[in-house]
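so my prof wants the structure for this chain in the tokens format not the other one, which i didnt know existed until like an hour ago. anyway here's the sequence
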Amino acid sequence: MIKEISSFSEVKLADEAFVVYDANVAWIAEQIMGPGVVGAIAIDATEENKTMDTVLLICRSMMEAGLSRSGEVVCVGGGITSDIGGFAASIYKRGVSYVNVPTTLLAQVDAGIGGKCGVNVDGLKNMLGVIVQPRVTYICADALRTLPRREMLCGVAEMMKTFLIADSTAYEEFCRRGVSVFAQGRTEVPGPCASEVPGGPICAQGVAPLVRPCAIKRAAEIKSGIVEEDPYEKGKRAVLNLGHTFAHGIEAVAAQRGDDIAHGEAVAMGIVLAARLGDRLYGTALEPRIAGDFERIGLPVKCPYALEELVPAMCKDKKGAGEKVKFVLLEDIGKPKFEMLAPSEAVEILSR
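here's what i got, hopefully its the right format
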């Protein structure tokens, strides 16, 4: 369930709660703390720390706090926090309930919705994990007030992915507005959020996040609807992986080289590669349009590595079946399609 709130004081805690929060958003965690909180732990929410060691650290802290099986874990932060916190909740005393309070755009439209929780192993993304739905995901526009532009753009990449697979009208509208505002390099625009959505939340200090609440809500609703139809990714839900097979390969190579490439940036590059692959297979011409849209908004579109370097990581993709991986491609905007291809085969097609 998704619930929009106007302030973090509206987060409803269980009678017994333990808070896991990103140290960077302690100011938000402080607003959530209440009489039912038995303990809390701040984590350094980075890909390097997205490991079983961190999960065990959280579980030990919950044990020390005396959190019972009737208690609840509250995850406050971005996608890494909800991944780690949700995973810890799922295995603590054979599983306790958890709640997400996403504080990044990427988490509000994607990572905080759907119940996928996991950790990285040997530099490979989310190789250990579970799918356990949060009791509720709270969406508060106020969290985005101070988000750096780069972090906003990472969320934009996931938003555009969602619109590309399910809502061509929302995609086109977002591109039109995005070009006009992101090009100015801002992360906020003047004016209250309430004017964007009837009954919508009003941000503190009279500013609205650069991405309108109505767009955030639409992206969140699309993902939530897809998840409800296919909670355990047995079919349709896999469309949400558009660009992610390539993205995980890019992230793996970046980690090996020590390069700074954020998940949303890798997703943007991966979507462009997926669009190119679809063009090769279906005779379409979507890549130039999508790459142009992404570039005008400020997203990276060119993979900095030789495509052959991505193959080893793509071969270990969770969506694999034997030697082949389920690639999500586009026949058109709003019309995703699956193709089972060996990663080396996909790279060969792209190189033609």
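also thought this was worth mentioning. Residues 187-208 have pLDDT under 50 and may be disordered.
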